[in-house]
Amino acid sequence: MQTQRLTTRVATSEPRFVPYPAPGPDAPNVLMVVLDDIGFAQLGCFGAGFRTPNIDRVAAQGLRYNRFHVTAVCSATRAALLTGRNHHAVGMGVTQEAALGFPGYHGRIPPSAATLARVLREHGYNTMAVGKWHLTPKGEYSAAGPFDRWPLGLGFERYYGFLGAETNHWAPELVRDNTHVEPPSSPEEGYHLTEDLVDQAIRMIRDQQQAAARKPFFCYLATGAAHAPHQVTEEWVAPYRGRFDDGWEEWRRRAFERQVAEGVVPPGTVLTERPPWVPDWATLSDDERRLFARYMEVFAGFVTHTDHHLGRLFDFLDEQGVADDTLVMVLSDNGASAEGGPTGTLNEAAGWLGMTEGVDEALAHLDDIGGPDANNHYPWGWAWAGNAPLRLWKRYAWLGGVRTPLVVRWGDRLAGPGGVRPQFCHAVDLYATVLEAAGVEAPETVDGVSQQPVDGASMLDSFTDPDAAEHRVLQYFEMMGSRGIYHDGWKAVTDHVANQFGERDHLVGSFDFDTDRWSLFRLADDFSESTDVADEHPDVVRRLEGLWWAEAGRNNVLPLFEFPDSMAHLHPGEFPPPGAATYRPGGGPVQESQLPAALGGFTMTAYVEVPVGGAEGIVTALGDRHGGWACYLLDGRPTATFALLDGAVRVAGPDPLSPGAHVLEVRYEPGRAARAVVAVDGADVAEAPLPGLVFFPNLSTAGAGLLVGRDRGIPVSRDYRPPFPFTGVLDRVEIRSGRPDARPQDDTSLKAAVASD
Q1: Cβ atoms < 10 Å from Cβ of 466
Q2: What percent of the chain shows pLDDT beyond 70?
Q3: pLDDT of the residue at 702
Q4: Among 109, 172, 452, 604, fewest CB within 10 Å belongs to which?
Q5: In three state form, how does the secondary structure of 485-531 look?
Q6: pLDDT tens, residue by residue, 590-604
Q7: What gap in Å lies between CA 562 and CA 558, rounded to an integer?
Q8: What is the mean pLDDT of residues 27-46?
């Protein structure tokens, strides 16, 4: 019997190659641009009347969808876009600032809902994300992660942007891939976030194309604009001076006329009436009109500036020769934002707490609006106008909160360029649409995990057929207790008013789920949700309400979110903040979410050595002049500044520190007689009353971090200019919480809508 010999040589062996994953043969590149807080009427091609020529150009070459819907807030819409599932079904019932211990609200996209980036990557795409993320629980922003829910952990290969709800456009909190990084330049050097983000998107696409032009890419670009703070240089604001002097009613009427003329809204659409909580412009004082118009001038300039830089990206696609092979989608995550309150604010975070400044004070800073010295947001009259012809705004299930612009372009793959498509569609549908365009099927399993059903349905047929049948006949809505449902041309919505931003002091409606009334609209004939026909069709109301409860059960909507009670159930996170910690100079920012809690008071102790001749500079700094605190030596004197939302409190020792070793201490002591204290070598040397609660919501939403031995960006105090490095020897800083378990929900007097961005 002859024994078969084993093959031991390459020359006589047969190779077996594992095939590379690949999409369909006609798979496009995909560019998804997600704008922030842009209302239905706030783009030129949707009737705005202010300049967005580059997005308008994409619309003229492509299509506009006038019945595209989202979830009413940022995180929830982004989760729906990227997973193709309803937001509660993937744990994103509200925003990451309010991740709760309930299945529909935990803020953690599960492995059973692999993202669009993850699926495309597994089929041969390069994937890159740029800009606002807002899908990571804020307790996971730190340099220790965990990184599973950062962009690279959810399917993207490259990332540059900011993790939080918002950030300062002059001095953002930036991340590259899995590392916190400094902005490439300072506000004084002309830095602006939108320009930087577009630069990074162009660079990523260029690098990818030069390395593997035959490989398709998915670029997800989410601008910080036009979310507050509305910030842009004066050159962009100047063209809009005087353009809003006749008020929000007139601007809204003109926008509506443009919408009708351009076919963005169908003939016969009713322009809904001004609600009683939006003041009649004619009743305002001259000072109020001047201030409110300025807020809107800045916003318009901000939008035009954003469009300008997006135009650079669109031009780059043309220059690369890939524009016709790129499926471009431009949309907004929710309707226009009313978080500036009735009168607008110079400091958006203060507005969350109902601490907006008076008109006289704001007028004194009129020229600061839009610049680094302001964190501004316009009055809610402009949000109402910006959603023309619809009702209400962001955070509500009414159309003003959930119907936003959608522009689509894909070379000659679309029929009737410049047209308007009327099919009802939703953010969850873009996932399925992109996969079908790429020739990719939604996977049954990913990494061995069975995938939950995809809620979206492809709208690709409507790209080529203006009369394509609606692919979606049922969609529920819910956000912070505001409930709605669409079914086969009907929409029902409740009159619930959320307990946030002081809106229950102004808005008319129900304050209790048990007393909510369902209104009914025949959207097939009533584009703007103008005429309530609930009394004429009680049977339809009952049927739709029953459908809503069924969808709520299927998607983990219950229990309903209500501020502030729900905040008692915040998800604790993997590593709760420490009670005390030590920090040394030379590192990156330590995220606010991982610092010892400040709500119950804290003590900062620094061990320093002053050389002969004295020292100056930052010991430690957190935040900026819009909210935060810092300890520093100024002309050698130990100084602490608390930049509270309604003003700054400064405490300074009387004498410079002498040469030698010292123990420097700053204490925040809360209570009825709250105070800030500066101590040197165990002896108190200065103190000042510290009224109110030391709570900085802007730090939480922006993901700001503590710096040791230096500052950057916008300073906490006008006493210094960053980086203002410490010129002595700074060994270490210790921070100890006076009450480690203190959290914002422990004080129900907080009116902050920290769950709303």
Answers
A1: 14
A2: 96
A3: 84
A4: 452
A5: EEECCEEEEECECCCCCCHHHCCCCECCHHHCCEEEEECCCCCCCCC
A6: 998 889 988 889 999
A7: 11
A8: 98
Q: How many CA atoms lie within 13 A of 629 on its CB side?
A: 23
Instruction: Report helix, strand or coil for 175.
Output: strand
pLDDT, tens digit, 9 for 90 and up, residues 149-180: 999 999 999 999 999 999 999 999 999 999 99
Max CA separation in the chain (angstroms): 108
503-537 burial, b for 16+ CB within 10 Å, e for fewer?
beeebebeeeeeebebbbbebeebbbbbebebeee
**Does pLDDT of 1 surpass 70?**
no
Measuring CA to CA, how many Å separate 709 from each of 189, 521, 608, 617, 706? 22, 59, 11, 7, 10
Match 């597994």 to its residue by tokens. 122
CA angle 9, 15, 19 (to 5 degrees): 160
Q: What are the residues whose beta carbons fall under 8 Å from the beta carbon of 4, sequence distance 6 or more?
A: none
The SS3 of residue 220 is strand
Partners of residue 603 on adjacent β-strands:
667, 736
Q: What is the pLDDT of residue 593?
A: 86
pLDDT attached to residue 741: 63
- Rounded distance between C-alpha atoms, residue 377 and residue 370, angstroms: 9
225 closest CA partner among 370, 107, 329: 370
- The two tokens of residue 551 are 């969808």
286-320 vs 247-262: helix axis angle to the nearest 10? Answer: 30
Q: With helix as H, strand as E and coil as C, how does 295-329 read?
A: HHHHHHHHHHHHHHHHHHHHHHHHHHCCHHHEEEE
Cβ atoms < 10 Å from Cβ of 196: 21
DSSP 97: G
Is the preceding omega at residue 226 within 30 degrees of 0, hence cis? Answer: yes
Distance CA 131, CA 159 (A): 8
d(CA 366, CA 368): 5
47 Ramachandran zone, left/alpha/beta (phi>0; psi -120 to 50):
left
Q: Rounded to whole angstroms, how far apart are CA atoms 29 and 415?
A: 19
Q: Tell me the per-residue pLDDT of 193-218, one tens digit each, with 9 for 90 and over.
A: 999 999 999 999 999 999 998 899 99
Helices assigned H by DSSP within 321-353: 348-352
In which band, very low, low, confident or very high, does the pLDDT at 671 lie, cut at 50, 70 and 90?
confident
pLDDT digits (tens, 9 = 90+) for 456-492: 999 999 999 999 999 999 999 999 999 999 999 999 9
Encode pLDDT of 501-543 as tens digits: 889 999 999 999 999 999 999 999 999 999 999 999 999 999 9
Token pair belonging to 260:
């009708």
What's the whole-model pTM score? 0.95
DSSP state of 591: E
CA atoms within 13 A on the CB side of 486: 25
Residue 452, Cβ density class (10 Å: 0-12 exposed, 13-18 middle, ≥19 buried): middle
Low-confidence winner among 332-346, 699-713, 725-739 (lowest mean pLDDT):
699-713
Extract the runs of DSSP E, i.e. beta strands, from 98-251. Answer: 126-132, 158-162, 174-176, 179-181, 217-222
- What single DSSP character describes residue 122? T
